[in-house]
Specification:
With about 350 residues, the protein is mainly alpha-helical. The chain has 13 helices and no strands. α4 crosses α10. The termini are far apart.
Length: about 350
């Protein structure tokens, strides 16, 4: 499911919920509402009402407020990017968020990186440069009048930078502050929706942007029965990522995203340029290096746990053996005293 969502999401959104047909703010507000619903359902089913009963607005706003605003801005830029570039180009450029996330995690969470992870990040940087400076892609889109490639790439790179910052904040809340992931997903959806509602309200008063468009045509203008498909897909995406990470770990998640990238490659095969052909295997190698690094870490941890288990067993066996020897000495001494009497 995660691979399919990752591979097809840009194409689905461009087809059924493009910003040229529906106001971007309306799309994100409804995505936020769906995220709240899905997140709360998953939270109640997984852990009952305990997290909801202990929830406070002040703590929630402190932990999820800033990431939610960042994600609202990122989602606006992403929708703008979908209108200008194809899904494969977006998926490749969007991996630049890993660079920002790695830098911020290193600075604020003091995480160290292996040589393989550094090489992986350098490869992602190389693919970003390859795609952004692709003259064939730019010329092709200009001839087809299907969008401004440079503008779409700029939207994607800015959105990726914001995503890297938001991901670092969320990672800190989930790992360091032990925030429940389902609750966090619902909170992000709620505060993102509120942010966009306030934006629309201000624009409505100023008679500009989405606010003016909604004022003239209505909030649901451009929506039809198919518009829910990309909204539900995006809303469920975060929950699916959390479940994949929880059940099969980071390695499984990396394999799913790699599969999604290959799906996107085949889907957009008619739009592939020479530089995109070079970029795809570079991203594959970068993912592979990340997978190998996590696999080695997992094996090391397992080996260490096994080693500790063996040590514990050895300690138990040694203690048991010593106890048996002491018991035997006591019995022999008792027998000798009995014979003497």
């Amino acid at each position: 499911l995660l691979a399919l969502q990752f591979g097809f999401q840009p194409a689905i959104t461009s087809k059924f919920a493009t910003g040229k047909l529906i106001t971007s703010s309306a799309i994100i507000v409804q995505e936020g509402v769906l995220k709240v619903g899905f997140g709360l359902q998953a939270l109640v089913l997984s852990s009952g009402l305990s997290h909801i009963k202990s929830w406070t607005f002040t703590e929630s706003l402190k932990k999820a407020g800033i990431p939610a605003v960042l994600y609202a801005v990122q989602n606006l830029l992403t929708l703008l990017a979908y209108d200008e570039i194809d899904g494969l180009t977006y998926n490749i450029l969007n991996q630049s968020k890993l660079l920002w996330n790695a830098i911020l995690v290193w600075i604020f969470l003091n995480e160290k990186f292996s040589y393989a992870q550094i090489v992986s990040l350098l490869l992602i940087m190389s693919t970003t440069i390859l795609v952004v400076t692709d003259p064939a892609k730019s010329d092709h889109q200009n001839e087809a009048k299907s969008g401004a490639f440079a503008l779409g790439a700029t939207y994607t790179l800015i959105a990726s930078c914001i995503s890297g910052i938001a991901s670092t904040l969320i990672q800190y809340n989930l790992q360091k502050l032990k925030r429940n992931s389902y609750l966090m997903s619902a909170e992000l959806g709620f505060y993102s929706a509120v942010t966009l509602i306030l934006k629309v309200a201000v624009e409505r008063q100023l008679e500009v942007g989405d606010g003016l468009r909604i004022k003239n045509k209505g909030f649901f203008t451009g929506f039809d029965e198919w518009s829910l498909l990309p909204l539900v897909s995006t809303s469920l995406g975060g929950i699916v990522v959390g479940q994949v990470t929880r059940t099969v770990g980071g390695v499984g998640k990396a394999y799913a995203l790699l599969t999604g990238l290959l799906i996107s490659t085949f889907w957009h095969s008619d739009e592939i340029t020479i530089r995109l052909m070079l970029a795809v295997p570079l991203v594959v190698v970068a993912f592979w290096l990340r997978i190998q690094t996590k696999s080695v870490g997992g094996n090391t941890a397992a080996a260490a746990a096994s080693h500790r288990h063996d040590d514990d067993d050895a300690g138990k066996n040694t203690s048991s053996s010593n106890g048996r020897r002491r018991s035997a000495r006591i019995r022999n001494l008792a027998g000798k005293k009995a014979r003497e009497r």
